[in-house]
Amino acid sequence: MESFYTIQGEGYYQGKAAYFIRLGGCDVGCVWCDVKDSWDASRHPQQSIDEIVSAAAAYPGRMAVITGGEPLMHNLDTLTAALHEAGFQTNIETSGSSPLSGEWDWICLSPKKFKFPLPEILPLAHELKVVIFNKSDFAWAEKYAAQVSPTCKLYLAPEWDKSKEMTPLLIEYIKENPQWELSLQIHKYINVP
After folding, report:
1. SS3 for the chain, per residue?
2. pTM for the full predicted model
3. Domains in the chain with CATH codes
4. How far is CA 160 from CA 60, 100, 164, 188, in A?
5. Which one of 5, 38, 52, 109 is least enclosed by Cβ atoms within 10 Å?
6. What does the pLDDT look like over 13-42, one tens digit per residue?
7. What average pLDDT score do residues 53-70 get?
């Protein structure tokens, strides 16, 4: 769908320079999705892997973040191999609802109620990021925290349009449950993609 060089705005690598590769196609359909334009892959021109990697290599950062839509709707083996060959760290942001492909240095799993993650992906996650849209989402977060690796980083993120309402609840929850950390979409605060 698009690619751009910016900083990672959330999660473990927040604040780091990153080249984002947003793939078209999504069958999860989150009502609060902020990139609904990505859902229909046919609306976006295809690019070769060489074109994608060459565009990424034009920038000094060497962290590539594959996102979507739902990037695992595509087989990512060849793309991640090419990125590794070009010296990139490969990170993915996924709901985990499709089978895992690709060679990943970092897997950010963000499970969604609209289409559950596959059980085999849960223990592979390095980062669990749960979007909090309403109070029932805390229980949803704990359900998945119990299924990831003990070394997985745990993040709670307020849904952007409800951040004024939800952030104070997240702060209190994290104070009571310090295994969690707060993840804000700082890219939206500083107005970068």
Report:
1. CEEEEEECCCCCCCCCEEEEEECCCCCCCCCCCCCHHHCCHHHCCCCCHHHHHHHHHCCCCCEEEEECCCHHHCCCHHHHHHHHHCCCEEEEEECCCCCCCCCCCEEEECCECCECCCCCCHHHCCEEEEEECCCCHHHHHHHHHCCCCCCCEEEEEECHHHHHHHHHHHHHHHHHCCCEEECCCHHHHCCCC
2. 0.91
3. 2-189 (3.20.20.70)
4. 30, 28, 8, 9
5. 5
6. 999 999 999 998 878 776 666 776 776 777
7. 96
End-to-end CA distance of the chain: 14
Q: Residue 79 is encoded by which pair of tokens?
A: 């793309």
CA distance 117 to 108: 12
Q: Which amino acid is it at 168? A: P
Using left for φ > 0, alpha for ψ between -120 and 50, and beta otherwise, residue 52 falls in alpha
State residue 144 phi and psi, 5-degree precision. -85, -30
Binding-site residue positions for S-adenosyl-L-methionine: 32-34, 69, 110-112
**pLDDT at residue 115 tops 90:** no
* Binding-site annotation, residues: 7-9, 22, 26, 30, 32-34, 67, 69, 110-112, 193
Token pair 């229980």: residue? 139
Known binding positions for [4Fe-4S] cluster: 26, 30, 33
